[in-house]
């Protein structure tokens, strides 16, 4: 799918013009890929990298344009089961045109980041900034989910919530790799700012993006370390909860075994002390002895605080 956009009054607007300067390709089909490679001169391997979530970020200079592969979080859905995925966005900067290629419709040009746009280069930098901002928003969600799972693990003896924490920890590792990859891309952009025709304002904005990405990386590193510590501690908590449950079940089992032993003894087909002379009173004697045996186990349980 192809969306055409243009900068009008310093804002992005949809347009149907064939000569639109900003093109957004969403999961391009075979015909669109052919147009990108043959008509615009985009390298087929680089174009494939724009849709590959495992591709590392990079900056390459081709004849007539610069190619940038940048990482961004993929939109989360319930079917992912606490696994946050990474996607790629391909950005191709020509002298008079800017082309975006994404695998799914998750690239938005909305919010305060896109209020005022003066050039294609500035739009490129604002898209990079939006990707980093998206990472930060996901990391905040990570923290809230981790706190909720921590509370559930403390009260649960199942492995389900613990496995969710393992999945969350795995996602953070992928996020750290993606953010580090973005950092290398930003450094390359700063080193080639003149070649990319960045103005002084663009370079200053690029410095802000560098700081923002560094803060994002520090946040992800902190959450990763905290979550790794939590997972190790919660494994012990689940094991301890299971031990406490088994101990209580053992006390209940012992409490039931003693009355069973009393009834078994007086149920034997042999002569017993109260079997002949006690009459109906013998039945109640046996019941009382059984109750007292269970009460003795309960009192021992309370006294020893088992």
Automatic annotation (TrEMBL):
<keyword id="KW-0472">Membrane</keyword>
<keyword id="KW-1133">Transmembrane helix</keyword>
<dbReference type="InterPro" id="IPR045863">
    <property type="entry name" value="CorA_TM1_TM2"/>
</dbReference>
<protein>
    <submittedName>
        <fullName>Magnesium transporter CorA family protein</fullName>
    </submittedName>
</protein>
<dbReference type="InterPro" id="IPR047199">
    <property type="entry name" value="CorA-like"/>
</dbReference>
<dbReference type="Pfam" id="PF01544">
    <property type="entry name" value="CorA"/>
</dbReference>
<comment type="similarity">
    <text>Belongs to the CorA metal ion transporter (MIT) (TC 1.A.35) family.</text>
</comment>
<feature type="transmembrane region" description="Helical">
    <location>
        <begin position="281"/>
        <end position="301"/>
    </location>
</feature>
<dbReference type="InterPro" id="IPR002523">
    <property type="entry name" value="MgTranspt_CorA/ZnTranspt_ZntB"/>
</dbReference>
<keyword id="KW-0812">Transmembrane</keyword>
<feature type="transmembrane region" description="Helical">
    <location>
        <begin position="249"/>
        <end position="269"/>
    </location>
</feature>
<dbReference type="InterPro" id="IPR045861">
    <property type="entry name" value="CorA_cytoplasmic_dom"/>
</dbReference>
């Amino acid at each position: 799918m192809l969306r055409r956009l243009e900068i009008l009054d310093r804002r992005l607007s949809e347009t149907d013009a064939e000569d639109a300067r900003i093109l957004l390709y969403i999961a391009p089909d075979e015909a669109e890929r052919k147009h990108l490679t043959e008509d615009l001169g985009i390298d087929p391997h680089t174009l494939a990298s724009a849709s590959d979530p495992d591709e590392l970020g990079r900056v390459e200079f081709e004849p007539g344009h610069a190619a940038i592969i940048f990482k961004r979080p993929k939109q989360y859905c319930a079917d992912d089961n606490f696994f946050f995925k990474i996607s790629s966005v391909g950005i191709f900067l020509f002298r008079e045109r800017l082309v975006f290629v994404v695998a799914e419709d998750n690239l938005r040009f909305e919010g305060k980041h896109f209020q005022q746009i003066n050039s294609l280069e500035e739009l490129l930098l604002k898209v990079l900034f939006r990707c980093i901002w998206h990472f930060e928003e996901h990391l905040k969600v990570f923290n809230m989910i981790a706190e909720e799972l921590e509370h559930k693990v403390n009260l649960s003896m199942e492995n389900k919530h613990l496995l969710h924490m393992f999945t969350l920890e795995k996602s953070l590792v992928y996020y750290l790799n993606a953010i580090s990859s973005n950092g290398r891309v930003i450094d390359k952009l700063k080193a080639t700012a003149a070649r990319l025709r960045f103005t002084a304002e663009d370079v200053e904005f690029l410095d802000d993006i560098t700081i923002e990405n560094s803060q994002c990386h520090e946040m992800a590193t902190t959450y990763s370390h905290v979550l790794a510590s939590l997972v190790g501690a919660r494994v012990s908590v689940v094991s301890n909860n299971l031990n406490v449950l088994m101990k209580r079940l053992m006390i209940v089992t012992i409490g039931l075994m003693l009355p069973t032993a009393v009834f078994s003894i007086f149920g034997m087909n042999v002569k017993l002390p109260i079997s002949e002379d006690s009459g109906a009173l013998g039945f109640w004697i046996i019941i009382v002895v059984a109750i007292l045996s269970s009460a003795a186990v309960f009192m021992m349980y309370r006294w020893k605080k088992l």
